[in-house]
Fold:
Amino acid sequence: MRHLRKDEIDDIPHYQFRRTFEDTLRNQTKLKIFIKGKIKKNYPVFIFEEDSFEGLIARSFLSQGNWRQMYYEDNGGKIPLGPAHTFAISLSKVKSYKVDIHRFSFKKQVDIAELWQLLLDELSFIFPGALEEALRISGEGESGVSSSGYSFDGDRKID
Amino acid sequence: MKRLKEESKAILKKILVHDEDLGGSFVSVTGSPGSSKTSVMLTMMRYLTKYQPKDKIFMSETYRAPLQCFNECNGEGLPIKLWVQEGSGVIFRDRNKRLKKITLPHETFKDFKDLYYRAPRGVVNVVFFGDREQWRDFMGYLTGVGEWVDVFVEEFQEICPLLSSLSKKLKPFIDTAKDFRKCRMNVVFNTQSIVEIAWPLVRKIQINIYLPGAQPLKWSRIQQKAIDNLEKSPSKGNESYIEHLGNFGKTRWEKIWKPNKEKSYEAFAER
Structure:
């Protein structure tokens, strides 16, 4: 992914950073579909998908993936894989169908689909927190929710 | 979503219920054509004529377009009074009769002072100066009257167009605009897009009302997508976002104001 220059970052309108509840929810659904597709075919993230995948992670996690440590469990032992967000990004850099997991004397080769499955399981812990965060930072409701607004007709006195 | 309701109510209260400590407000209403910008203003005027009977309410209308002050809601219009400045050359024409010149009941006035002291309270005084730019000076005059005044301006970009941003003519009005709140004046204007207005004035706006199709200000907390999702209902009324000091709420404008087809009049400045 190409890093943005400072002047390019300054050009991004502020509202692009403000994610709403609906945005987050939609991106979470997209991410789940994406990961399920990868599990089914045991595929890594292709180069042309990298940027959109990272965007999808950022928009659906809303920084809530930084606090969740992920582990690979084998025979009762736990091998740390790093925070969920970092793990997802590093997983997108893997370009083979098999991945080596090693720590000290432990070494194992697994299908990438197995790691995708780990990430998918982790999403159920991250997504509720991200949705809560979305509600906290943004008050916009879903379209057509008539009860969310104050009805004003000019006849009743505002108390 | 209760917060959206409460915030909205609090902001509307700030505009329509007078508080000596808080003072007046400078309000913009933006939205695409047909998004009920005028209805929002007419609803506010209706409220003020009903609950603030001591206020003097002034309205600025556009020329060569149907007069909106004759619009009705459920067959009921606003209490209005037309004022034309002497020598301004303003006439009224009937759009149903191929722009035939007609005589509408109105009163004439000499200058701002004459207009202000003769304008009745609790009635919407629709004023025609012949030249819309005179509204800048009139609003300047109103800051000095020392009582609660409400001014409603249609198509504000005709009074303070973007191209006048650096004009010396606009400077006194920019200085005036910062005093609206302190001088107990409520100025509510509408425009299709805020970018059409002289930019020094945009920062002076206290409260923004975004109707469907509006473009939020760069520093607004409301994002474009949220405005695009506002409900547009010809029966229940359109929704809007209303923002003040970074707080925002959602309001539904229940009343549907429709043009009175029999009174399709327009004002025309002959000069």
